[in-house]
Amino acid sequence: MKKIKKVVLAYSGGLDTSVIAKWLEDTYECEVVTFTADLGQGEEVEPARAKAEALGIKEIYIDDLREEFVRDFVFPMFRANTIYEGEYLLGTSIARPLISKRLIEIANETGADAISHGATGKGNDQVRFELGAYALKPGVQVIAPWREWDLNSREKLLAYCDEHGIEVERKKGKSPYSMDANLLHISYEGGILEDPWAEAEEDMWRWSVSPEAAPDVATYLNLTYRKGDIVAIDGEDMSPAQVLTYLNNVGGENGIGRLDIVENRYVGMKSRGCYETPGGTIMLRAHRAIESITLDREVAHLKDELMPKYAKLIYNGYWWSPEREMLQKMIDESQEPVNGEVRLKLYKGNVTVVGRRSEDSLFDESIATFEDDAGAYNQADAEGFIKLNALRLRIAANKGRKLD
Amino acid sequence: MKKIKKVVLAYSGGLDTSVIAKWLEDTYECEVVTFTADLGQGEEVEPARAKAEALGIKEIYIDDLREEFVRDFVFPMFRANTIYEGEYLLGTSIARPLISKRLIEIANETGADAISHGATGKGNDQVRFELGAYALKPGVQVIAPWREWDLNSREKLLAYCDEHGIEVERKKGKSPYSMDANLLHISYEGGILEDPWAEAEEDMWRWSVSPEAAPDVATYLNLTYRKGDIVAIDGEDMSPAQVLTYLNNVGGENGIGRLDIVENRYVGMKSRGCYETPGGTIMLRAHRAIESITLDREVAHLKDELMPKYAKLIYNGYWWSPEREMLQKMIDESQEPVNGEVRLKLYKGNVTVVGRRSEDSLFDESIATFEDDAGAYNQADAEGFIKLNALRLRIAANKGRKLD
Amino acid sequence: MKKIKKVVLAYSGGLDTSVIAKWLEDTYECEVVTFTADLGQGEEVEPARAKAEALGIKEIYIDDLREEFVRDFVFPMFRANTIYEGEYLLGTSIARPLISKRLIEIANETGADAISHGATGKGNDQVRFELGAYALKPGVQVIAPWREWDLNSREKLLAYCDEHGIEVERKKGKSPYSMDANLLHISYEGGILEDPWAEAEEDMWRWSVSPEAAPDVATYLNLTYRKGDIVAIDGEDMSPAQVLTYLNNVGGENGIGRLDIVENRYVGMKSRGCYETPGGTIMLRAHRAIESITLDREVAHLKDELMPKYAKLIYNGYWWSPEREMLQKMIDESQEPVNGEVRLKLYKGNVTVVGRRSEDSLFDESIATFEDDAGAYNQADAEGFIKLNALRLRIAANKGRKLD
Amino acid sequence: MKKIKKVVLAYSGGLDTSVIAKWLEDTYECEVVTFTADLGQGEEVEPARAKAEALGIKEIYIDDLREEFVRDFVFPMFRANTIYEGEYLLGTSIARPLISKRLIEIANETGADAISHGATGKGNDQVRFELGAYALKPGVQVIAPWREWDLNSREKLLAYCDEHGIEVERKKGKSPYSMDANLLHISYEGGILEDPWAEAEEDMWRWSVSPEAAPDVATYLNLTYRKGDIVAIDGEDMSPAQVLTYLNNVGGENGIGRLDIVENRYVGMKSRGCYETPGGTIMLRAHRAIESITLDREVAHLKDELMPKYAKLIYNGYWWSPEREMLQKMIDESQEPVNGEVRLKLYKGNVTVVGRRSEDSLFDESIATFEDDAGAYNQADAEGFIKLNALRLRIAANKGRKLD
């Protein structure tokens, strides 16, 4: 067994990580530092302090990371119009590298030689936490209790609490789902969702009303972009976290951002997940709209061709890698002219772009018009354009090459 | 000027192509063959016969191509989950290669040495028509009147009719939009849409009700897939065109498939377009859902990485090219196991996947479960997996390499 | 410890795998089946029979797989112009999937529940063997002794032989390199090569003379291609293995095919390797030459863009995967017209293409000529071609967009 | 006809561009400014002044652009390991954007409203010149006399000279090839090369001796890299143009850098070209070698996957485009750690890397070693790594999915 002196634990204050805190002390005879972050999950983080103290923890870190999360992780990702497997907005994936970063910073501050987390051995999150940790502090030890211990059920965890005098709330009617939340989304896995044919139940969803329950009148929004990021809504300047909070609220009220998919995990299995991403769903659509008038065609296409790779890097846990940073450099470079306004209509689950304008627009009405363009575009050029683009095809056909 | 003996004209029966028919005869002193296709645009094609006869046309082709269109063009394209620039479902693009093919077949049957069409010199359609024609008959002459004549307004066209005794309906309240329709979609360009900031007017849309006007109760659908194509709806076998017709109807009734975008044309300009693609919008979502349980992860990712290129080929007019066929071969190969059922909920503009199942499913509940998996998956394997994936990152960090 | 009944061992007859055979019996108390393949490594395989018998093995498989190796693995790979990291011709990588396939076939024939191999825990070969085995027989057990035992030096292996009465040749002057050979190449790792600054010594190389020692007169070769594969040399029909054997001989005599690189292993480390691939080096160059006149430009470019991914799949051990097969389908499709002849000059390490011709050539002298082309190509078309390709750049510049 | 006031002509001083200068004045009744650049083509540029003066030109620009050419164009391109269609080092392509840039700068300085060049209507160079010009000055007029006039043979050009009193040297034994040279390469097209089966004649080649004629003793070189560029040779600091000049000399003496290919032009035809690129051939190999020890694996692979696209951009003339700049940003970012030394052996056409070292090396001997690594690498990790990478393949096989 690894020799550990001090370990920094990603601590939520809930049952699992409370057991882990105790189990780490007992199993490794080491000091435990807890780290609890407010990433916008919608629960108070301050109560975690008392719980950690009750467990006898001496070094307790509680951080509000919401602005950093949106500014340095969510926004850069949305500059790439990132979607994993055509559907998933990467709400869980994008929060992990920030947690890894803080775990390692705290390890460095407190002289810890290990980190620990409550992710299971089947999921993507263990990979994301640990790849980030190793990339930032290559000699760190990682303890993943779920891969080591035999406390593999809620009953065993509760028994462990009884045995070790850990006080936990024993809620009745605990959610049957495994959930994760941060300012970008909330996710649901497990329970009846393990059958991909079963429809998710209405009372599972927590952040959004159903389209049916949303208002009967549409809401219009004006988003202002600077270098690819939203900096104001309806004319009011907002910080990154304020933007996302606002969009989550208005999106959730309008029934926007529910998703139900089967995805391919990095560890090799398929899993069913449901997600609510109200603000992110709005941002993706709106960002494409502002890009549609400000980006050069080939720049946009290059971004589109690289997007699946970029999404996969984030999904798989390679935020902290030189290849992600290399791609990010290129993406950020492309966003210089992505300035302007997008007007949106939100209505019962629908996000519709109804207008976009920009001082950096490349849309040229004088050329695009169906009316007389006063010679701005010479239609005769099209003949040569087509002829030379067809040349290789014509030569091939002349030589007897057949198309199916 | 080119010497032309006989020309096959893509003829709609409307003002523009009626003028073109006459203009071709006069300008090139050649015979004109008309070709009118039913691609599901929703207008009768038979009336075109009388109009062509009135123009003195002797060889008149009127074809119902709806099944061929969906079976050989729309369905193969949807196997690739094709979207251009993140939004556009390629409704116009995918119809052009079929028209090119028939124009050339008719040219071969009638001994014509030229083809002609009514597309302007600014758009993509001229490129699509002509690339297809050249690829299939490399020596064909192409006449694109809009690039040659000076009849560049509706007024001049009407004056030409008067002068040459062409009878046309002079509708009052003609639509201010340039429109194109086929079984996959209807498109709108021009008019107030030339200002990308202006919201499209509700009375522009023809195929779908607005989400606001859609029923207050959701509609559920069951789609059955075989090799990536829909072969039955709610248990009833349907032909490809029947499938798309059905989905257009139910989609349109539920306010599904409206799109408002600025896109990048192949000829180099940006243009604003609005589209209604009710059935296609449903098909895209459902196809991803059936693939999500039946495709291998890496196959799915490879498809996703190549999709933008495939979409660009179709958008730019390279359906009839060896590179498109090469990609299609690969895509079709991937669809062998894409069999099963998808259950959808349609409600006021929303298409939600609520279930998917397949005898070819790769979803393995015994492995994915949050419950005890009886050893199907060894969580300890994850440690080695992560450690080796992290190795290059750790070596780099150990050597002093910094991440930003 | 796993319970094993019978194990099929990839057996070379050398020290390591002889020890493994004995160690498997002792450790797992299981039957051992040996499998020895002639892949063109240049050593007799028949002697392995007597050695296996001396170890008490009852089921002994010795196969000549040279034709299958070249026909079904080497040739398909060369259709893709495969190179890993710009340099490596994948000589080791491409032999592994065939060995995996035979191990599993033999396991099925003999009722074995496990396979074993002599690859170390640091290299790529373990990955290639095992991924193939798992893909072909998902329930198979894999025993990789080098990852389990503590016999981690030649001395310990020899001591084990003494202890267990295993007779092995104790060659003096054993090569200081770790080597692997098959009909495509021979490789060298370890020894002084572990210092990437150290030049490989001349006496390391076994298959080729140095360019300095090669003949002073060039050798000319004529290769005939059918569907991308070489089917005749200098007019003489040859089987795949004959082709490669012939090219190895003539290439090696002319000092062709040495390579000295640092490569990135799948397991995460960099390693230095030297390779001799005389025939493969010739084939790569010649295949590009025959493709240069027979492939459509966009087909060729698509192949080039996908090649690095295809090479990585093979390097990493994913020959037996649906994504490799999907790519192969596309590549093979592209090779239909790759027929004709290539003329090469071999001289002291250089492979020079001096001519290529084909009845499927797309080279059109009448168009390409600098002389008068009698109107085959209309130079005026170029203006429109350039103007429209420049349009987006001009619009951007007109709008004030700056290039660096 | 376009109205032109003043035109800047890319002027070599030879027959063609001398005729063009006169023809422009006569045809467009405009002033002509000549621009002659020393790009290292190996001919004096100063004589062009007297020739231009003799033609009555008043504004004459003669620039030595060698350093700028190598520093800002050749070196950035080699950072990407650029090769077009697997063979071509883009020697012609990379010089064009610099000429475009200077033409436009001079047009701006002299108040010219047009540029002109001597490239034909069949080739790539017209595209490269003009795309660059339009991107940098969107309103510029471009005159391409070869696409306009009927002087389509040497005889007609000479007759034009006689008629207009233009003095030109009438060399006997003029080269039968169309040639282009700059510090990166010299190219040959036309003549007997128009038959792709015909071997190039030895006396065609001008910059390199044949491998047969090269010295019998190898030359060793030491190249020092900083951020991906060569900054010293054999310990001596050199400027970019000095580096390339030196490598051309030593490469040419050793028979290095000849190439004979059929390539696909952007205008749609295949053409046969021969090239001598002695220094570039050395640089490509050496750059890959220094990257092999300093680049992260995934960064290197990403570069390799994007390289064909980058090469195509340069070949097709899109140096001055936002997409090329976006890719360049990413490539340059990757080169920060590409520092160190490469040792090469040059011998009769062969460039062999014999050593590479760097303070930024990621090669970790302690991990890569075949000897005991003292626990630096845990071989047991490989099992989990393989097991999880195999998981999707095993699930598929368990579900009955077959591989071919």
TrEMBL record, chains A, B, C, D:
Q: What is its EC number?
A: 6.3.4.5
Q: Which segments constitute the Arginosuccinate synthase C-terminal domain?
A: 177-395
**TM spans, by residue?**
none
Q: Which InterPro entries match?
A: Arginosuc_syn_C, Arginosuc_syn_N, Arginosuc_synth, Arginosuc_synth_CS, Arginosuc_synth_type_1_subfam, AS_cat/multimer_dom_body, Rossmann-like_a/b/a_fold
What metabolic or biological pathway is this protein involved in? Amino-acid biosynthesis; L-arginine biosynthesis; L-arginine from L-ornithine and carbamoyl phosphate: step 2/3
Q: Superkingdom of this entry's organism?
A: Bacteria
Task: Please give the Pfam families that the UniProt record associates with this protein.
Answer: Arginosuc_syn_C (PF20979), Arginosuc_synth (PF00764)
Record keywords: Amino-acid biosynthesis, Arginine biosynthesis, ATP-binding, Cytoplasm, Ligase, Nucleotide-binding
MF term (GO), any? ATP binding
Cite a GO CC annotation: cytoplasm
Where L-aspartate binds, per the record, is at: T120, N124, D125
Q: Which GO terms describe its biological process?
A: argininosuccinate metabolic process; L-arginine biosynthetic process; urea cycle
The Arginosuccinate synthase-like N-terminal domain sits at: 6-167
Q: Which residues bind L-citrulline?
A: Y88, S93, N124, R128, S178, S187, E263, Y275
- Annotated ATP binding lies at A10, Y11, S12, G13, G14, L15, D16, T17, S18, A37, G118
Quote the catalytic activity from the record: L-citrulline + L-aspartate + ATP = 2-(N(omega)-L-arginino)succinate + AMP + diphosphate + H(+)
Q: Where in the cell is it found?
A: Cytoplasm
Return the broad EC class. ligase
Provide the family line. Belongs to the argininosuccinate synthase family. Type 1 subfamily.
Cross-referenced NCBIfam families? argG, PRK00509.1
Subunit field text: Homotetramer.
Q: What is this protein identified as?
A: Argininosuccinate synthase
